[in-house]
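Problem: given the chain below (304 residues), write out its structure.
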Amino acid sequence: MDTAFDKQGRLINGEDLWELNGKVDKDGYYCIGCGVNVTPASYDRELNVQRPHFREHRSYPHKANCDVLGEDEIKGNGRKRKVFNPNDTLPSFIPTVLRLIDTNTAMGTDQSLNYSSSSIKGTNLGTERVVRRSHGVVQSIRRLCSVYIDYPYDRDIPLKIPDNELSTYGELFRKIPSDFRLADTSKILMSQMHFSRLDIIDNEIRIQLSQGLWGYDEKIKKERVIKNSFLIIDTSNWSKNRKTVITNELNFVRSEAIDAYNKNKKTKLKSWIFFIGSQDLDNPSIYRVSDHRLICAMSADNIL
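Solution.
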């Protein structure tokens, strides 16, 4: 499972566990579908290869009516075919609304994890929670990006994000345009990351993107990107820990793609960056983002 509720009813993404520096409450997370205790896993970024996630607790199996039970199977099918009817009730692990509730500009305190408007009440001596559904609401783009990647044939699922009318996943995710054309920065923009190392200076992380200005290369006798776009992350209002987390995440995803390429030059696995930010009008090759809730990086091989 990629998400779970904590004891305060906040919706926690697996990657949020990285921010706790190993100080994770192993009994403090609950299934978003049925409320039983679940176990945090792979949260030690120094020791674990996998991304942080939650798994079924050995002593507390999911309830029979829990829609999270079939998530792995649904996800496996979703990579091959359409699995959802957008007019039907969607399972709890499919978000349909991005709502940025916390307006505190001092982003990145170690305790300020992402959460939805859901809450849960304790029962059964703390091993189970009564779930109040989040109604598909999330407070960061990460889960939206996971759904976009995992269900490529279901991008007609409804989605509402700030500054946009109710639309669909397919309409609200956009690859950044080539040749430095202006992008619709109200959408969730995405691009492959270049293999180049991150450029970190003071309170900025500069990421070279694979998209950019195309031109004819006489040396190789074909068109290629001759000048790249860049994404600049402004971390001036972030905690030291949050800066470390995003840096580790970017390097982790970048390394996944490089390792896959070194093993197989024809690999389809790529490192992708997703964000809602701005584009520099004086230099449209530059994109910027400063809100930690509005950026994430993931590896994927099926982004069409």
